[in-house]
Amino acid sequence: MTGNEALPPSTQQIDAGAARRQRRRLAASGEAPWLHQEVASRMLDRLPVIRLQPTAVLQSRPSTGGGDAGLRQHYPQATQLWLEPESDIRALQQPRARRGFMQSVMDKLRGGSATELVAEPPAGAAQLAWSNMELHAEADKPALVKRWHAGLAVEGCLMFSCLGPDSFIELRPIYAREGWGPPAPDWVDMHDLGDLLVHAGFADPVMDQEHLRLTWGSPQDLLRDLRALGGNLAPARMRGLRTQAWRDRLLAALESLRGPDGRLALSIELVYGHAFKPQPKVKVAATTEVSLDQMRAMVRGAGKH
Asked: Which DSSP string corresponds to 82-149?
């Protein structure tokens, strides 16, 4: 599998340039959006189900999703590997990583964890990979999932969350009526995400979803929060500079979202998933070649039974 071929064409619609700009903005701000922080908290509540005591945790793009403090609290002895594939975002993360390094020195003296900022995950280094509210905004989802798989040790666990297809659905008829193009990409269905994990080599992914209803008192507040959550990453979105007249028209159109309680409401679908990296399987042929790393992994796995 290369590129996005594991996903249906309708689910590949992410503007890669817009997504990169959003990630840079989040890294520069030093704080994940409020919704991402809330989802991180809900993911942390699920950690007791995963019976692992990792020596290393791979945090995929921590500037996007948050959760670093909670992971350190759950796994105080584990090294935290911050995965930031893009060099400009790594540069923005360096000050945090240096502070994390100095803190890790003090933590190590007390038996705590270290922090490392990496462009690529060391092969098989982590027993837990964590991605919060990242995958839906990734243009090349198969490549990102492969990075997670490569960074996990055999029998390591992946946990992730992202937006699902029912997110912001109330905006679609408004934008269609006004001729403004799509208000958001077509987010990927959780079943397709499960298939993507299997294609990448993960075993028996478990997927579930949660629906939230978010409300605002004014359309101005709603627009501000939508921008903070990532803006519109749809390639077919309406382009060009906006006028004040267009903004006034948008604010008026958003009033149709006001419900009986007097507040503007939008739906959010959250998708959660976890999966394990299984023992490598060797294809049997007349002559079978097995790498030394594969042999070691199989021997370690056999010794556990």
From this structure: EE--SHHHHHHHHHHHHHHHHHHHHHHHTT---EEEESSPPTT-EEEEEEES-GGG-S-HHHHHHHHH
